[in-house]
Design a protein that fits this description.
Blueprint (H helix, E strand, L loop, with lengths): L2 H15 L9 H26 L7 H15 L21 H4 L1 H22 L4 H22 L8
Bound molecules: ascorbic acid.
Length: about 160
Amino acid sequence: MNRRLLAAATFVVAWVSLPAAAQFQKPEDAIKYRQSALTVMSTHFGRVAAMAAGRIPYDAKAASDNLAIAVMASRLPFVAFVEGSDKGLPNRAKPEVWSQNAKFKELAEKMQGELAKLDTAAKAGTLDALKPAVAATGAACKACHDDFRAEKYSAN
Ligand code: ASC
């Protein structure tokens, strides 16, 4: 391998092996990233929840399309709860995100699992299949918020 290629390969390997924390230059970047990902997830899950609640007409294709995005977005936020990113921008992460991190991760994974099951259920193409899976997913969102999301935004 020539020297430049070796240097380039070394750089790539080092970069992808960086801990998640190092992929955000500042706490502010991590906060913005996770808030954005959660907003995208909530927006697309919310459209399906609105169908389940009868607030908007049921549309099987739209449900699937929205869930594909929600499932993808659900994989994003959690690497951005890096140590030291409790401050940097106003946010609602409680200190327990870091002090009880194993529980936080468990609830995050539970939510990802319920959302994946909802995505599968939606493929049946009926509103009846959607409803219980929407309820289970919403409950998983709420379980994490109850313990790990503050009522009010921090001052910075
Ligand atoms: C949503 C949304 C949440 C959850 C939660 C469920 O649609 O944005 O955060 O459902 O409200 O309790």
